[in-house]
Write a structure and sequence with these properties.
Layout (H helix, E strand, L loop, with lengths): L1 H9 L33 E3 L2 E14 L3 E14 L8 E10 L4 E10 L5 E16 L12 E19 L2 E15 L18 E13 L10 E11 L9 E14 L3 E14 L8 E2 L13 E2 L2 E14 L2 E13 L11 E13 L4 E10 L4 E7 L4
Antiparallel strand pairs: 1-2, 2-3, 3-4, 4-5, 5-6, 6-7, 7-8, 8-9, 9-10, 10-11, 11-12, 12-15, 13-14, 15-16, 16-17, 17-18, 18-19
Amino acid sequence: MGRSVRAGLRALALAAAVSAPRALPVAAQHDGRAPVPSPDTMRVMRMGVERSLAVVPLVFSSPVTGVGFGLDLLGLSAPRGDSTTRPTRMQLALIYTTRSQAIADIQFDIWTRGNRWNLSGQVEGNLYPQPFFGIGPNDPALVGEEFDLHMAGALLRGQRELREGLFLTMGTRLRAWNVDSLLPGGLLATSGVAGVAGGHFVGFEAGLARDTRDLPLNARTGSLLAASLFASSRAWGSGFSWATLTLDGRWYAPVLRGRTLAVQVQAQHAIGDPVFEFMPNLGGPFDLRAYVNNRWRDKAMAFAQAELRTPVWWRFGAVGFAGVGGVARSFGAFRAAELRPSVGLGLRFAIVPARGANVRADFAVGAGGQRAFYLNFGEAF
């Protein structure tokens, strides 16, 4: 949740806030007014480890939040001279508004040398207004209903490489929340979905992934084929019982003199009574980018998207992308007329070129005149 809300807020961030990382202490910031540092100042090496830091300050305003301020910080580290071991990533996001609304999000992704073991996770807190558009494939022009979500959650996930490129994943996720400012007789109050009155869940996940990507942060060749199952049950103390199966396929190929064609297909299906904030959903910076976060929710979701990524000059690049997807009560209930399109263009700035780490700015348009802008670390997929 924190990552999707944060991405929406970046749409209101100042464009000048995007700055290249420098070899600075963690507490230091680059405000975008100084000249861009030369490549030899972009990284710092200590004790055989190469480290990089990027900072994006946020300033935004909206009728719901008032004036808001925030900071998004990304740190990468990897063994020096080792192009095989995936970089360890640490990310911190903090947002606060003049109406006492706040988001805090810490993420980490740690790899051992040779990619034999991986530990990743997230700790998040949220005191922030959210939109709800109902359940199912409704009209894209439908105006959402605001509610206040007070939420705390954590995720811990481990991976073990069974053989080259084949990973076993196991993890656990817990979340507790309250819903305030619920409109009596409104969309959310009358939706009949689980979790409207607040609650908590404890869930476990397991999965397998075949990953041959050359650069996971911005792949140019290879593929990712992954299947995972998440389950929450009252049998082990969760407040809700349901399971969600996710299938994810991504393919990358070099084309047209240095360009990259990237394709993703993903499907999810929930069995039981999923919490409304954890239902399969579409909309946001990682799937159909023309629509706001969690624009559509239901028990089944599927989408496909493709990107053409091209270098432009120095560390800058450009992207053209298109996608289509939808939600339904089940996969048998999908209708072609209810699929939603999304097309757009984006700019990229490489903050750590050797590792494929980018800052991206994407603008997309979709059905019903919907449009959205996102400013993020990392590619959409």
